[in-house]
Amino acid sequence: MLIRPMTSTDLPGVLAVQQRCYGPAFHEPLAAFASKLAGAPDTCWVASTATEGILAYLVSLPVDAHSLPALHATQWQAPAQAQRLYLHDLAVAPIARGRSLAPRLVARAQQCARDMGLQQMVLVAVQGSESFWQGQGFAAQAMLAGAPGDKLASFGPDARFMACTL
């Protein structure tokens, strides 16, 4: 299993994994992934094998309170000065569950955030994933001060904003 930086040629495989892991309301378009990857190519990864293709991915973005993307947003730009690493989307294909890919991808993001000099990672937990994220060291908290309220709302009424200090 190889965990490597995501490239634009990976996006069809990433979308295929997304569609197997999330309900239709969370299916983001190709343009949303392409925008995030173009703005943060060093903080997006895939887990793949030569025979099975892409089995998991993590899209994370260096952000400040104003640059958190809404769900389905097709335009995203990195801020001039990032304050946190935002884990926007993590998915593991059903056939790859039990291979510890999610914790390995999260560990890659943690190391990247530390290398960037960031002291916190944040995310929006959806589809009942809050307990998984708690196991990764995240805790629910109020949305970041200064962040537009519609960003969290775009993820649905059950979404939970969570943070982890590094």
Task: Give a written overview of the molecule.
By secondary structure, the chain is α+β, with helices and mostly antiparallel strands. The protein has one domain (2-165): Aminopeptidase, CATH 3.40.630. It contains 5 helices and 7 strands. It has a 7-stranded mixed beta sheet, sandwiched between helices. A hairpin with a 3-residue loop joins β2 (44-49) and β3 (53-63). It is globular, with a radius of gyration of 15 Å.
- CATH class, named Alpha Beta
Shape: globular
Terminus-to-terminus distance? 26 Å
Q: CATH homologous superfamily?
A: Gcn5-related N-acetyltransferase (GNAT)
Topology pattern, helix = H, strand = E: EHHEEEHEHEHE
Instruction: Strand order, main sheet: write it out.
Output: 1-2-3-4-5-7-6
Low-confidence stretches: none
Q: What structural category characterises the helix and strand content?
A: alpha+beta
CATH architectural category: 3-Layer(aba) Sandwich
Mean residue pLDDT: 92
Can you tell me the number of structural domains?
1
What's the topology here?
Blueprint (H helix, E strand, L loop, with lengths): L1 E4 L5 H11 L8 H10 L4 E6 L3 E11 L20 E9 L8 H15 L4 E6 L4 H6 L3 E2 L8 H5 L6 E6 L1
Parallel strand pairs: 4-5
Antiparallel strand pairs: 1-2, 2-3, 3-4, 5-7, 6-7
